[in-house]
Every structure is written in structure tokens, then in C-alpha cells.
Amino acid sequence: MYKVAVVGATGAVGMHMVKVLQERNFPIDRLFLVASEHSAGKRIAFKDEEHEVVALRDFDFSSVDIALFSAGSSVSKEYAPKAAESGCIVVDNSSAFRMDDSVPLVVPEVNPQDVDWHKGIIANPNCSTIQMVVALNPLHRVNRIKKIVVSTYQAVSGKGLKAVEELKNQSADVLSDKDVVPEQFPHQIAFNVLPHIDVFVEDGYTKEEMKMLNETRKIMGDSKIDVAATAVRVPVFIGHSESVWVKFEGEMNVSRVKDILKGADGVVVVDEPSAAEYPLAVDVAGRDEVFVGRIRRDLNDPLAILMWVVADNLRKGAATNAVQIAELLVKRGKV
Amino acid sequence: MYKVAVVGATGAVGMHMVKVLQERNFPIDRLFLVASEHSAGKRIAFKDEEHEVVALRDFDFSSVDIALFSAGSSVSKEYAPKAAESGCIVVDNSSAFRMDDSVPLVVPEVNPQDVDWHKGIIANPNCSTIQMVVALNPLHRVNRIKKIVVSTYQAVSGKGLKAVEELKNQSADVLSDKDVVPEQFPHQIAFNVLPHIDVFVEDGYTKEEMKMLNETRKIMGDSKIDVAATAVRVPVFIGHSESVWVKFEGEMNVSRVKDILKGADGVVVVDEPSAAEYPLAVDVAGRDEVFVGRIRRDLNDPLAILMWVVADNLRKGAATNAVQIAELLVKRGKV
Asked: CA nearest A300 in B: which residue?
């Protein structure tokens, strides 16, 4: 049994971490819920017991075996190394350490072995990257992927609870002809789509788009995979969808892709177009797997296929993946 | 001055045709508003005058010079040839005749010369295709396009007025925790995205996706252009957005792309990421141009670039393009 802390326990992902730890019956003998001073004193239920949220500033990580962090990059940068130094293993959901060569970046279905070389911190990848690599890595293992062109349809919950509230309130405002004042997003998100997630960096790309390139290479352990991503926010509460075009080294046929994915860990194939069955954001909310459908060949390129990949961004895209990393640590005797 | 009929005048596109004819001051001496018997007798304003809607079944096309049809494929199949036989030129917004070799498929910025060989019917392309070719053809002329991978974010108004009502009502229902019963769409559209527009055809593609391949080839007059499309409905009222990856025959640099597009007919470049400026569906509603932004190089392929293309699907994607075809007929002395 382990002593586990959730840092950022009152946020959208943190609350899901607590929920997922309970649902998956992670072997906890003591749970610490940690957040900012502002949230300290709040009470959150875990296994029929109320836990009081304690302030991060006063928290002693030396009494903890595993800490799941989801409180933003600046909090992780300051507190994750301190927690690791005091002997606890940090699974960090922020982008702070993902591209650090001394920190493993892990998706359990893809690179479980990478937890073994952790030095106190293991990074949890970006939500849109996780679901893509879970769907693509099983294919990559049998036919090397050379290029991915992906366009995302990302839910507002990826930006936190305030963003969810903004979509709700703004939608009601638009429906009743009121003026809209964006706060969480750079522009109106209700009944609109925004090709802008995270900040713009070099070459006209956003950081979110660069994560999909760089994190995919690190997780899949292949620095030659090429990802051309366009990350788009859509007015959906939970569930990221991705339109993915993939080019392989050799010819790839659709029935083989379906067979491989049907047998792949953490993947559910939903692909019956004649019955209008394909993965949908509203259906995957609350689920831990990655859903794949609309699998079809590129009509003009025998090396390429297209697919539609959907997952719950708060669960497999964040909380579930973090808890699965903790489970891996236990399974591989690394905690 | 011409006698013009709008067939399907009470629909989402038909109403915009009337509006656009007025705004662009098309030389009309008599306007006929035609619709189903169900809508006959309704009154619609045009240039400060109320016009009564007449029933299609009783309508005599021999008194008309140009008829703009937007009443669905089955109506077009039955009435467009009859109208053409009686001497009027039909500009048809349905998919009925688009791939017919004896019918020109025209986007005025791309292939204006094709109106010259009409035999009574000219087809107006699919909304998602129009905006894509307006943005890509100027580039194709200087550096041949070999492949396009496109994912769309299409507004519900493309499906008609009932679909717009469904998004409004369903959104209100979801916000007040009521159950949702889809009628116009195969699944819930409020706060969701659907990778399914029009019916499924061969190879797991939808008809909408096949239109983007076949119509692009016909309009751009290049049967070798390859388009791998994923067409997705999003909860937006007006304005289709498209995430486009384009591969050219030769190297293409971003500043050249921007220069070409800034000088291109019917294109507006909105591309200042540092100021969070890029085209947005809510901004282009009511506009006739095609808006392009997020222009950037493919980081790993010097032959490819990415861009974000947005247009008002009811206007440039339908009504405006049809009226522009009528204007071309006048300009080229073909009516």
C-alpha cells in the first residue's frame, strides 16, 4: 500500500485523478489532497471519506511515495524537484519536464519500460499526443510510420474548469443574443472554432502543435517520425477528436490496420459507417480507452491511411494516464 | 436587364441568393421567387418590394433568363433540364450535375472560362470545395499542387435552416440538462463534432469527402491532384473552416505563399499569430471572400505548407458563388 498525493486536487484534471485512483482501486493507504492556499480547507470525497485539501506551500512530500502533479508548469517547476529530492516519485502532468532528457515521458501502452530509468520525476504527455500515440504505435511496430498530418478538435476542458464555465455561459449568451466577452480564450469559443491552443512559438506553430511533434518522437522512440499538426479548440466540453493521415514505410491495408488496432492495448475500434458508428466526443466522456474509427485507405497513396481518433482528454489524456504510470511503477517494482 | 428566378427561395441558401443579388446590384428587371407548394404565397422582400413566392410546379421558365436553383438534388434533376430546355440558363447549387461532363462546374476566381461552354446548366460546386480551390488555385498556377490533406470544420447551416434550429434547441437543452433527440443529424451536434457529412459511399468515405476530391480536380482542371479529405460537422452556425496541408511539385516558401495569396482574387490573408489574428468562422459570416491564415511551412518537408481557410458557407460557399456565375454570364455575353 502506498501514500499518494494529488497536487492540484481541485482542478479539472486533479479531481479526475482522485476519481480514477478510486475507480481503479489503486493500493493507497493514505491520500493527500494538495492545492493552492486559496483551496486549502476544501473537502473532497475519496472512498466514502472526506479529505481536507491542504496547502502546497506547507506540504511535506517526505511522507509520500507517489505524487501526481497537475497544477500547471510553474508549480511543477518549483515543487516537483523538491518533492523528488525528498524521496517521493512525481508523475507530472505539466509540460515542464516532458522534453527533459533526464525525465521519462510515458504512455503505458507505448513505452512502459521508460519508467525504469526515472530519477524521481516521470512526465505525463500532452493530452492530444497521448491518444494519437496509443492509436498509432501498434501500427508503427509492424510498419514504420514516416509522416503524420493531424488536425485536432479539442475540448475546452483541456484548458480547465473556468474554460468549461466560459463555454457554458457564452453559449447561453449567444442563444439569447447577448454580447460575448472572451476571458479564457483569445476569441469567442461558443459556436466557433479556434486554430490556437497554447502560445505561438517559432515558424507560426503553436506550442500545442510542437508538442505533438516532439512528444510523439520521444514517446515512440523514433526521432524521424514527422508530425505536421494543426491544433484547434472546438466548443465541446469533454473529448478530443483527431483527424489523422498517416504515411507508412511500406504498403498498409485497411483490414490489417483494423486487425492490429482491435488487438491493441487500450484501443477500441468503433467503425461501422453504414450504421453511422464512429467515435464521438460525447460518447467517450468517462471512458479510459482510445477510440478509433473512420479507418480508410488514402485513395491515391497505397502507403497512407486515414483515421478518426477520440479520447476523454481529462482521463486517458491526463488523469488516467498518470494513474496508469503509477500502476506501472508498482508493477515493475520501481516505487 | 435580366429576368431572374431563385428556385428554393425560402431555404437557407435561397434566401441568401436573394440577399446577394440585391447587395451586388445584379441587373434584374424582374425577380421570380420559386419554392415548393408548401411555401407558395409567402412574401419575401427584394429592393423594398415584397415578392410573392410561387409554386415550382406551376412555374413557366420560358419567361426567365437565369434561374438560380437551390432546392436539393431531386428537384434539380427534375426541373433544371426542363428550365434549360425552355431557354433559361440554370445555375444549380445541388450536386445533381456537378460531375456531368456536359456541365461546367465553376468558381469564378478559378475557371471563369468554363461558363462559355455551358449547354443550359452550370453547376455551383460544394461549399467546402469552393473555399479550398479559391485559396489553392493561385498557388497551383505557380507551383503545381500534387496532394492535399484536408480536415474540415463545417457549420450546420450547410445542412439547412432546420439544422440551424436543431443546433440552437439542442444547445439550450444540453445547457439545461435535458435529453437530446437528434433529428437533422445522425447524432447529437450540440457540444460535439461529427465525422459524417452527407452519406457514406465507397471505401469508407462520405460523399462530402469524395466531392472535395472530384470537384477540385474538375474545377482546377487537373485530374492528377490528389485530395485526402475528412469532412466534419461542428457546432457552428455559419462559416466553414478547413485545416489544409498542401504538397507542391517544387519547393514553396511561406513568404511567397503569402505574397501570392495577398494578390489573389477573392482571397483575404489574415495571418498575425502574435496578435492572435487568424480567420474565424464567427468573423467571416456575412463576407464574400475566402480568408486564409496560419500559413506555415511543413517543418520536415520543403515541398509542403499548411494553412487555415475559412469562408461563409452560405455566401461564397453557395449563394455568392452562384450570383458571381450569373455575373460572369453577363460579363462574357453568354446570356
From this structure: B226
SS3 B80: helix
| Longest CA–CA separation in chain A, Å | 61
Residue A202, pLDDT above cutoff 90: no
A301 with B191: Cβ contact below 8 A: no
What chain B residue is nearest to A205 in terms of C-alpha separation?
B296
- Model confidence at B138, in pLDDT bands (50, 70, 90)? very high
Question: Which residues does chain A have within 8 Å of residue B295's beta carbon, measured at their own beta carbons?
Answer: 204
Sheet holding A49-55, edge to edge: A43-46, A49-55, A28-35, A2-7, A66-69, A89-92, A121-123
Which chain A residues contact residue B193 at CB under 8 A? Answer: 153, 234, 236, 241, 280-281
Question: Which residues in chain B have their CB less than 8 angstroms from residue A255's CB?
Answer: none
**Contacts A226 to B, Cβ<8 Å:** 299-301
User: From B283, which residue of chain A is nearest by alpha-carbon distance?
Assistant: A192
Closest-CA distance, A74 to chain B, in angstroms, reads 22
Query: Which chain A residue is nearest to residue B232, measuring alpha carbons?
Result: A243
DSSP 8-class letter at A257: H
Q: What is the pLDDT of residue A89?
A: 98
Question: Is pTM, for the whole model, over 0.80?
Answer: yes
Q: Are A199 and A210 in contact (CB under 8 A)?
A: no
Catalytic residues of A: 127, 240
Instruction: Please write the tens of the pLDDT for every residue from A137-182.
Output: 999 999 999 999 999 999 999 999 999 999 999 999 999 999 999 9
Q: Where are the domains of chain A?
A: 2-125+318-331, 129-313
Contact A201, A239 (CB under 8 A): no
Instruction: Identify any residues that bridge with B291 across adjacent strands, giving them in sequence order.
Output: B268, B310
Q: Do residues A86 and A5 lie in contact, with contact meaning Cβ atoms separated by under 8 Å?
A: no
pLDDT at A67: 98
State the smallest CA–CA distance between residue B92 and chain A in angstroms. 28
**B55-86 per-position pLDDT tens digit:** 999 899 999 999 999 999 999 999 999 999 99
Q: Point out the residue among B193, B293, B298 whose CB comes nearest to the CB of A241.
A: B193
Nearest to B297 among A203, A278, A301 (CB): A203
Distance from CA of B287 to the nearest CA of A (A): 16
Mutate to test the interface with B, among A145, A147, A151 (most CBs of B within 10 A): A151
Q: Of all helices (H) and strands (E), which one includes residue A262?
A: helix A254-262
A176 CB-near residues (< 8 Å, 6+ apart): none
**A136/A129 Cα distance (integer angstroms):** 10
Q: What is the CATH number of domain A2-125+318-331?
A: 3.40.50.720
DSSP letter (8 states) at residue A88: P
* Fold designation for A129-313: Dihydrodipicolinate Reductase; domain 2 (3.30.360)
Other CB atoms within a 10 A radius of the CB of residue B270 amount to 16
Q: What is the pLDDT of residues A105-127, one digit of tens each?
A: 999 999 999 999 999 999 999 99
B151-172 tens-digit pLDDT: 999 999 999 999 999 999 999 9
**What's the one-letter identity of residue B248?**
F
- Predicted local confidence at residue A119, as pLDDT: 97
